């Protein structure tokens, strides 16, 4: 309905994406990804426990690191220069309520993760909880109330600009 899956995009569920952490290959598995031209462009993680975002947010960030690593591996394999940084669009589904993220990943962050070191610069993740009338109700009921649905769909439509 919102054209996140344009004709040249592919939607995958539960796709393992490998990357290096502490010198070992590990996998991150987003609940859903959107791929365009063989590059990961949107990551979605479901918070299954619905107690707090403490579990889903780190998973989403690890998935962005894995997506950056995989995108650059593919670029190098076809003779393109690797990207020095990329901002990934991400969504955590907290029940039926999405929370939106812009996750900047850089080569220095990926290198630091591979070497089990602190990165030289901080990584700041942007987060948007839809501005619904009652935030506590949103965390419990998500898009069930009609007013929440209206706000969430406006946010989904606006967030599409970051999926590239």
Polypeptide structure, described:
With 164 residues, this protein is α+β, with helices and mostly antiparallel strands. It has one domain (9-162). Helix content is 31%, strand content 32%. The chain has 4 helices and 8 strands; from the N terminus they run E-E-E-E-E-H-E-E-H-E-H-H. A 6-stranded mixed beta sheet has the order 1-4-5-6-7-8.
Give the secondary structure arrangement, pairings included:
Layout: E1 9-13, E2 17-21, E3 24-28, E4 32-36, E5 39-47, H1 56-77, E6 85-94, E7 97-106, H2 107-114, E8 126-128, H3 135-141, H4 146-159
Parallel strand pairs: 5-6
Antiparallel strand pairs: 1-4, 2-3, 4-5, 6-7, 7-8
Q: How would you concisely characterize the structure shown here?
A:
With 164 residues, this protein is α+β, with helices and mostly antiparallel strands. Helix content is 31%, strand content 32%.
**C-alpha Rg, in Å?**
16 Å
Uncertain stretches of 5 or more adjacent residues: none
Number of domains: 1
Order the strands across the largest sheet as they lie in space. Answer: 1-4-5-6-7-8
Helix content: 25-40%
Q: Give a count of the beta strands, DSSP E runs of length 2 or more.
A: 8
**Helix-strand sequence:** EEEEEHEEHEHH
SS element count, helices: 4
Shape: globular
Indicate the structural class: alpha+beta
Oligomer status: single chain
Termini, distance in Å? 17 Å
Strand content: 25-35%
Largest sheet: 6 strands, mixed
Determine the mean pLDDT: 90
Keywords:
single chain; 164 residues; alpha+beta; two-stranded antiparallel ribbon
């Amino acid at each position: 309905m919102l054209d996140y899956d344009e004709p040249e995009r592919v939607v995958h569920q539960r796709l393992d994406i490998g990357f290096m952490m502490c010198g070992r290959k590990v996998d991150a598995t987003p609940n859903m990804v959107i791929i365009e031209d063989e590059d990961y462009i949107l990551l979605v993680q479901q918070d299954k426990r619905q107690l707090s975002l403490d579990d889903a947010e780190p998973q989403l960030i690890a998935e962005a690191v894995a997506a950056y690593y995989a995108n650059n591996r593919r670029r190098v394999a076809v003779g393109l220069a690797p990207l020095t940084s990329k901002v990934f669009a991400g969504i955590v589904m907290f029940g039926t309520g999405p929370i939106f993220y812009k996750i900047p990943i850089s080569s220095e962050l990926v290198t630091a993760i591979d070497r089990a070191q602190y990165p030289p610069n901080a990584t700041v993740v942007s987060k948007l909880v839809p501005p619904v009338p009652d935030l506590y109700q949103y965390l419990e009921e998500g898009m069930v109330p009609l007013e929440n649905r209206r706000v969430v769909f406006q946010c989904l439509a606006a967030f599409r600009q970051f999926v590239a």
